[in-house]
Please model this.
Amino acid sequence: MAHGESALLVGGDRRTPPVASEVSLRARGNRLIAAVAAAFTLAQLALVRPGMGLGWDETVYVSQVGAQAPAAFFSAPRARGVSLLVAPIASWSTSTELLRVYLAVLSGLGLYLALRAWRGLFPARVLAVGGALFASLWITLFYGPQAMPNYWVAVGGLGAVGCFLRAREHPRALWGVAAGACLMAWMRPTDAVWVTLPLLVTAAVGRRPRAALALVAGLVAGGAQWVIEAYVSYGGLAERLHEGSRIQGGLGPQFAVDDQLRSLGGRALCRPCTGPLPDPVVMAWWAVLPLLAVLGLVVAVRAGRTRVTLVTLACATTAAVPYLFLIGYAAPRFLLPAYALVAIPVADALFHLATTPAGRWRPVAAILLAIGLAGHLAVQYAVLERTVDRTTGHHRDWADTAAELNRLGVRPPCLLTGHLSVPVAFYAGCTSAAALGPNTNSTESRIVGASRRMPVAVLTRHGGAPSAFARDWRTVTAAGMDIHVAPKVSAHGPGATP
Model:
């Protein structure tokens, strides 16, 4: 009996260290992920710079809740998620710097929570490196602190997929599935459907009704406002989808892979996407990415986590499909959800190349990979710096044009139309209107009528001809643009009130 008791005591002692070790490893993994997320936030603040100014799309989203300018036209493809995201700052402050800091901190927190959803599916070091690979892309750093939806679709998708894969053993993770799906649908409902499509199929085939319910509940909760708005403002869901397709040039079988390659050099929007491809050094990582993803799947098969990696890669693929094969132009931010998901299998592949099955480093392979990653980071930084400088210059020009408009007497309440009227109107505190193009929300006769009640100006490229109704208006050049001011405003002179 004494021997039996002794054996029990020894057994108890042997069981205790593994539990403590497991807790210690989990805490260490959380610290690694937190360090990656914190570095991501700091890198945004240091490299993107909070004073960059707001971009075209950002002014549309911020104007819906901000006080700087009237709400800009909200086209059919857009969703209200970004506007709600920025509301805690934009509703009371016009400081772009404060908004950028807020979004940088929030994006770091989002990355941390999304990576934590993968605990237990991959080693902590793989998750940390996968997160670092995604966070160090110039596209991620550039759009993390911006009032744009694509980064949030990416972290929502990353979190939803991770929670879905953990939910079989940890049912409470279904809450994360619903939250991630809700966040994606809140930001871009159509993207949310593409990302979750493999999860819905997996849940149906695997007879997992609770997982399917969590996904559907999240999609419905996040997309309900968009659907309701479709019936209230666009004539129905089918009509809104049709209008969204028209604005995007008509969705259908198209080949945009080369367009995405052209955008890798720092083009925020490649439409029309013409011109030469970037330097091969800039495109190299894009060519290596699918090869490493396939190797990650091979590693997963050997490690016994085939289902986890296969589902992850399937979601990354469906997230990329519409922007590679169904749309006729490109923007690098469109593929952020795919990059976030593929980063973890890629990190798994890199560790396989750099270490032995026993976990020891392969010195030559590790050094070569380190050199390759260092070169990759240098390229990402160079593209980011060039993109930030160019973008900051554009935004400064818009602010200068707005200042000149105000000097000419075009002050709130006022209306702008023509070239770049949407962002310049935001900077000037005016309403924007368009009689042609994807942002059509008025007619020429209504614009002329408005010029009799308030200051109105037409913007054109330097030397460009304005619409027929504005050809006799006074023309002033500012920041490379021509400002054609309605007679009623110019008659009052600078500083006059309408």
